[in-house]
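Thread title: Can someone regenerate the structure for this chain?

I was given the following input by a collaborator and told the matching C-alpha cells would be attached. They weren't. Posting the sequence so someone can regenerate them.
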Amino acid sequence: MSDPRTQHLITARELIDHPVPHPVVLHVGRRSATLPAAQAKIAGAHVTELEEDFAASGYGERGRLPLPDVRSLTDRVQSWGIDGDTPVIVYAARPELVSAATRAWFVLRWAGLPDVRLLDGGLDAWRAEGGGTEDIATAAPAAPSTFAASPGHLPTIDADRAAQFGARGGLLDARDQTAYDGGHIPGARLVPSPVFENGRLKSAETLRSALPIPAAVYCGAGVSATTVAFAYATLGRTVPVYVASWSGWTADADRPIEQA
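Best answer:
Regenerated them for you:
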C-alpha cells in the first residue's frame, strides 16, 4: 500500500492478481423490499447488512442510522473472524449500494481496524474480472477472534459542531440537489457531484478538482456522507462525519433550516 488511494481502495484485478494475505471479505447489502435480493456473493465472503451490522436503532437527535454500540459491533466483528490485524475487504452487493459499503468501511475504521479496503466496483467488477462466486446462502468460515471495538479512530461530530462548521462555510451536504434545496443546515454547501460513478470511485485528479478544502460532511442519515469521507481518505485527508445528519438535525424543532 504505497499511497492513500491504495490504502483504502482495491480493484478486482489487483485482488485477483495479487491476493491480500488471509483477508476477511464482507458482502454489504441493505434492508429494503424495493431492492432485488442478491443471489451470489464473492466466494468465502460474509453476508452483512447496513442496518443490522453497521448501525444501531435510530431515534431523535441520534438520527435514523446512528453508529452501532461497542458491544454489538465487537460481537459482529468477532463473528466474522476479524482480529485487530486482519485485512478486511468490503464491497457493495450492487453499484447503487456503494454508500452502504463505504458506511461499513467507515464503521470498521472508526472502531479501530487499520486495514479496511473497498473493492472498487463491488460484486459486478469482481464478476467482470472472472472472480469466483458462490450462492449467497453459503456460510463463510470464521477464525477465532479477540477483537474489541475502540471507537474514535475516525472523527465524528454532533449537531452543535455541525452548526459551527456551517457558520464557517466548511460543512458539505452529500445529498442530492432536490433534498438540499428543500432544506439544509445553515451555511452548508452541496457536494458538487457524486464521488462514485456506477459504483466506481472517480479518479484522484477528478476528486481533487471537484472537492473543496475538507472540513466536515453530512447527508440524510449518515450513509452517503461516508462516500465523501472515503473519497477524501483516498486523497490523504480526513474529514469528520455528522452521523446523525439531516435526520438528527430536524429532530430538534429549534434548529434552524436554510433553503436555497
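The mean pLDDT is 95.
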